[in-house]
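To the wet lab folks,

You asked to see what we're planning to order before we commit. Fair enough. Below is the target structure as tokens, and below that is the sequence we designed to fit it. If anything looks off to you, flag it before the synthesis order goes out.
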């Protein structure tokens, strides 16, 4: 699945403990759009009943991809342990309501009972109201290239600063220091993360990128990975050309070539090794995205 130009992609960070007063800013045709003035609630649990009206669920919105012209995708957490993926038909709700967590949760139809992980909300042809037209229990895709012994459940993570829409600083009892996690927000993103997981194995222990720390799981399937958090770095300058060439040559010695240009402002870290590590100028901790453009030279 690809999001076309002009689609609103609003990925909500809902993993802090307090709400933060601010405006929700989405992008429509690359221009800022104020979804709704007021509060963006971070980590707020809201309560809804099931379709029978006899059970109250805690619902937390994790991620959302909102499209004003097509169907929208949502990832929610129910009762603090069950992840469900919702698809909402086009033009069923306003963009503002879908971008604002309290509004979205309040207008969702009652959750159907039973064991399901994907659902679709459509307009009921009988009364015109939104309803769950379909709920199913499906085997969601998983990263298949597993090579690290450690697996980390996403529920064990305390998410911190958002670096990108699917990249966060995080803490977990399994590590003394903060780490960086990258994960598939929706099932269609799994193939990208699968390729990136493989690429990290190629360069592990070669002092090229951040250290790969383990696989990230959601209800048994692998959806991402954890990596070393780099805190000390600087941007490269023309005087660092030799160091850039030295670092890139390590890839070539592994029979790997970078199919494209590295970021113009590649960052270097000298905190752990006497030679530079490559990482993104935007997140510094996350060089992994550039690994997606790698291909074997042989």
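Sequence we intend to order:
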């Amino acid at each position: 699945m690809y999001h076309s130009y002009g689609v609103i992609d609003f990925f909500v960070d809902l993993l802090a403990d307090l709400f933060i007063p601010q405006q929700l800013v989405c992008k429509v045709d690359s221009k800022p759009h104020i979804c709704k003035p007021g509060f963006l609630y971070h980590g707020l649990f809201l309560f809804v009943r099931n379709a029978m009206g006899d059970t109250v669920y805690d619902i937390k919105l994790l991620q959302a991809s909102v499209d004003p012209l097509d169907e929208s995708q949502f990832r929610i957490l129910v009762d603090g342990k069950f992840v469900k993926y919702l698809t909402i038909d086009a033009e069923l709700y306003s963009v503002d309501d879908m971008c604002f967590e309290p509004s979205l949760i309040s207008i969702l139809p009652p959750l159907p009972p039973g064991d399901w992980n994907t659902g679709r909300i459509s307009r009921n042809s009988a009364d015109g109201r939104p309803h769950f037209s379909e709920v199913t229990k499906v085997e969601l895709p998983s990263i298949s290239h597993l090579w690290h012994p450690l697996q980390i459940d996403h529920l064990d993570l305390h998410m911190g600063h958002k670096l990108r829409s699917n990249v966060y600083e995080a803490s977990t009892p399994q590590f003394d220091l903060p780490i960086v996690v990258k994960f598939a927000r929706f099932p269609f993103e799994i193939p990208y993360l699968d390729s990136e997981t493989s690429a990290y194995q190629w360069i592990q222990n070669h002092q090229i990128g951040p250290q790969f720390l383990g696989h990230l799981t959601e209800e048994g399937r692998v959806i991402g990975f954890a990596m070393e958090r780099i805190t000390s770095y600087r941007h490269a300058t023309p005087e660092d050309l030799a160091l850039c060439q030295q670092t890139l040559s390590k890839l070539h010695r592994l029979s790997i070539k970078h199919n494209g240009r590295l970021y113009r402002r590649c960052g270097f870290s000298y905190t752990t090794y006497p030679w530079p590590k490559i990482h993104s100028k935007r997140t510094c901790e996350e060089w992994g995205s550039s690994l997606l453009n790698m291909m074997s030279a042989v």
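Structural context that might help your review: The first strand starts at residue 20 and ends at 21. The CA atoms of residues 123 and 140 lie 25 Å apart.

Thanks,
Computational group
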